[in-house]
Amino acid sequence: MARQILRRRGGHVLDPGGWTPDQREFIEKLRDDPPRFMREFILVESRDDRSQLVPLELYPAQEDFHRTLETIRAWNTFRGAVLIQDETTRDSIQELLGVELTRKRVRDAIEAITALSVNKFMRFVRGLGHRVSDGPVNVVACKGRQATLSTYIQARIFFECYFNTGLSCLVAAQEENASKNVLDTIRRIIDYWPASPDPRAEFRPEIVDESAISLRLGTGSRINAQTAGSRRDAQRSWRFDVYHLTEYAHYLAYAAIAAGLQAAPNHRWVFKESTAKGTHGRYYEDFMGGRYIDELLDAYAHGALQDLDWNNHVRWFFGVHRDQGRALQLDDLETAHVLRTLTADEQALIQKYNLTPGQIAWRRQKMADCEGSDLEPEQFYAQEHPYDPADAFQATGENVFDPKKVHALELRAGDRQPIICLRVDDQEDPREAHTFDSNLRVYEAPILGEEYVIGADVSQGVERDWHAAVVGRRIDEVRVREVALFRSRTIPPAAYGEILTMLAEWYNEAFLEVEANGPGIGTTIRIFENGYTNVYHREPLDMVSDLVKRNAFRFGFSERKETKHDVITRLQMAIRTGAIEIYSPQIFTELRAFSRDPKTGKQEGKPHDDCVIACALMHHAHRMGAPPLERREVRLKQQMRLRREQTFDDHVWAEIKKKRERATRMAGFEAPPDR
């Protein structure tokens, strides 16, 4: 944030009578340590007892948010320092940090900058005749009830206004009373300021102008309150340095806020925080399109930030299980009772999140208060006190997939990670990639003798639509297990056909069921041109007689309202009966968001349902499309004859090489040499 830091004044608005050297040293230290400033000067109502005023000691969620904010600021200043061309300046910065100014050392540099303090680092660079900014900061935060995140943001806004001149801040809420309450919280910071004879009273700030919707401190910094969708054109036209958009998911109108953000300076801080409200709306889209700061730092270090699918928002989430204050104090008998009466869901939660009996008891207490909501008690609890973001965003329409069963399926999956992540496309060799840069996540490599099926949804070419392919291992005639997920929106349909052919051949000549609507025709044509025939096909109707043509067939699955309903219903039943195992978080996210419009009966997920459709096609291929499972020993002997033992990487490359040679022969020129 490009701002002027206040210093000791002969007419300093914070120091009308003059400070002693010790006082000056004290306040100078605090301006580089926001948590300490909050402990020293800010009194707030206790989260556990509203009648008590306590110093603002950061709770776990507040501490985590503070670390995220400081990491973003440090990253921004480091990126600015990397661009400095003057070698003398670069040498001075590197000597200060003990880290080279290179992308690959970004994490070490951020650690050094935050240890020093971002403000000190900015002042140091400024002293060398250069300027770096700690903005922009765009955070979209998903929180649970009583996470006290708003309290931290309000205190941080006050901290910035206390030490900076001419700072302009906006707090906005859906309702007018809520926005005024936020402003009143900042007023109370001054009202509760330590009074004489406490020596801290000397540092009390002055309010020089205030109204119901604004206040201005003696530093010249001001804080304004606004209702989302307000028609106050005067405020709408102001440029703010800091935006606090509280309960953002519940805004009924975004136009005024969006217009204000368009006028925001490059160094702005924007905090969009809220409890979740369904799987639609601007807040949901902003959160799902964001990335966690660790993902961004990894992408930056690898030079892949510009290729990242990212909407310039940093996600922040803090699961309720990480807050030890969300637990009841139990004696031995109560603990034994909790452990003796655990449900299957509670046992899965303990295994996945390492919950204590006290946390289970707290969960039960809150669940008892969830009756009367539009959602089921389990869904409402998950929305208000989420363990992960997928819990928070509950579909508000008619859920197609039973939320309880989806939740149980996810708990059974645990925290299974891919054994390898790959980047596969038609322009370069396949390579192992970081999670953020991969489009193929493999949970289980092909097993000799096993049979596999692949369901593939083809992007329709509209904005934010994706190709998706789910690979499943056929456990028996009923059960199927996800072993890989491919997802991309950067490749054309024909190239997608090449990748599907490669995947199918790698997974023991898997049975392919590909959507054949629109661009899907190009995908199925390329699979046919590749000579791959183990695919789903359908018998077409004669357009005149309306009879089935028994001697003809068409490749691919034709997705119509009736056929889509059929495959979705079969997947619905598989989830209900536990006949399918899923590991990909993206699939679980889309299953939760997949709903039925009660007016039209249309089934879809927002903003995406590509993985749901691919998963449904994979399951349909297993139950209806692929031939019956053969005896395992027969399959094993056949595949041993067809395939020699190869390493993972060797085999992937061999399949890609084969496709490249075939494609170049069809194009009429020789294949390029191997790299």
Mean pLDDT: 83
- Percent of residues in β-strands: 15-25%
Note the total helix count.
25
- Major β-sheet strand ordering: 7-8-9-6-10-11-4-13-12
Low-pLDDT sequence parts: 2-13, 541-553, 644-648, 667-675
Give the C-alpha Rg. Answer: 29 Å
Can you give the helix content as a percent range? Answer: 40-55%
Basic shape: globular
Report the CATH C-level class of the domain at 420-579 and 610-636: Alpha Beta
Largest sheet: 9 strands, mixed
**What do we call the CATH topology of the domain at 420-579 and 610-636?**
Nucleotidyltransferase, domain 5
Brief write-up:
42% of the residues lie in helices and 15% in strands. With 675 residues, it is an alpha/beta fold. The strands form 6 sheets. Strands 7-8-9-6-10-11-4-13-12 form a 9-stranded mixed beta sheet, sandwiched between helices.
Word description of this protein:
The longest helix is centred in the first third of the chain and has 23 residues, at 60-82. The chain is of the alpha/beta class. The protein starts with a strand and ends in an 8-residue tail after the last helix. Mean pLDDT is 83; it is low at 2-13, 541-553, 644-648 and 667-675. Among the domains are: 324-382, no CATH class; 420-579 and 610-636, Nucleotidyltransferase, domain 5 (2-Layer Sandwich). Helix 5 crosses helix 6. The radius of gyration is 29 Å and the shape is globular. The strands form six sheets. It has a nine-stranded mixed beta sheet with strand order 7-8-9-6-10-11-4-13-12, sandwiched between helices. Strands 15, 16, 17, 18, 19, 20, 21 and 24 form an eight-stranded mixed beta sheet that branches. A three-stranded antiparallel beta sheet has the order 14-25-26. The protein has 25 helices and 26 strands.
